[in-house]
Amino acid sequence: MKKYSSVITAYIGVAILLVVFAIMNPNFIKPRNLFPLVRSICPYLLVGIGQGIVCITGNIDLSIGSVLGMSAMISATLICNGMNPVLAILIDLVCCLAVGVVNGILVGKFKLPPFIGTLGTMTICRGLAELVNGNYNTGDIGSDAAQTMFRDVFYYKRLFGPFYISVIIALVIWFCFNYLMNYTRTGRHIYAIGSNVDAARLSGVNVFKTTTTAYLISAFCSFTAGLITMAAAGMGSMQAGMSYEMYGVAAAVIGGISTLGGSGYLVGVIAGASVWAILQNGLTMANVPVALRNIIIGVIVVVCVLLDIARRSGIKLGQKKTA
To answer: CA 47, 52, 57, 60: dihedral to nearest 10 degrees?
Structure first.
């Protein structure tokens, strides 16, 4: 149970937040707020999955938010220009996965520091998001049968009563990558290079391939989050995905994934994404200013990272390590 302590702590935090905000405002736990709240977790969960897997390799992906924005703009622009949504999604997917490959090459093959490599692709993707429609947001994607189905699937439609299809999509993606991380050789290799990349290489792990796989997963999650974001707005916005690299790190770190690599579980990312969404929703209902909300989230992320460093080093913060 000790290895899951950070995950358990994250879920306890979720429960505490639910109780606190329910006391502050009884409307918080009413279905008309709770069901949309669960739906709002989806983009945070998706970028948290991608960022979490990259963090487990000992790297980071700063391009997540820009890939999300690029995904929203490419799909919306193509649909607005009369392309079938299915074909638009496929083209969008190829473009987003290409970014994952580039990140993998820069970090895994050329050994570029992940902060620098993905900072570069972050800027490039944001530029592409702005360029794809001539530096303008798109108009409404339309209300024909195909466009309506697209918006229903990725945002509005419910299945099995209160459950939105977008929630089911996010959970299926989580389940698939959770299985990959826990029960496949690829997952073991991802943990191995995060724990000790040199030892993993000597053990026969293809570090370049494994790193690229992690970045491909991150790009795929951002692509899907972009579709959900675009479906919610019904248009493409060049600002879509702004600060989502922060959201991804927050969901992963709060959920117990170490920024130092080699440890953490995707089951915790669900709690981490939920904490973020609950805080945003609850503080909004409490009329807390946006600036203060951001400060609170930032403090929580920093504290979680400090606690992770203390746990990994085996000492208490502020206490000197003895020989």
So the answer is: 50
